[in-house]
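Per reviewer request, we include the raw input and output of the structure prediction for the construct analysed in the revised manuscript.
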Amino acid sequence: QVRLVESGGGLVRPGGSLRLSCATSGFNLDYYTIGWFRQAPGKKREGVSSLNSDGSTYYANSAKGRFTISRDNAKTTVYLQMSSLKPEDTGVYYCAAGSSDYVSPVTGYDMDYWGKGTLVTVSS
């Protein structure tokens, strides 16, 4: 059974840091692109970062220089380290995995599996 379970969200002050985790099971992450997406209240879902099977990465402009995506040595958990957080980073963060060559790290198009999300709130 395929599972993606996000954790690590919470309330943090502006300028603070959080590390999100996406624990995966039921499929071989070596053959998938895994991405982090977020959705703020009243807004469309947007891609934040992704890690491709070849090790290449994508970062949204809003995430560059502040967020880092990585994978553990066992290759079953993907992390999103977020620093210098801003109120506009608030939202539900989802991880997703896709094996297609056509997956979009921007929109999440063609992703096969999605987690249920973890809420990040950046507020003073």
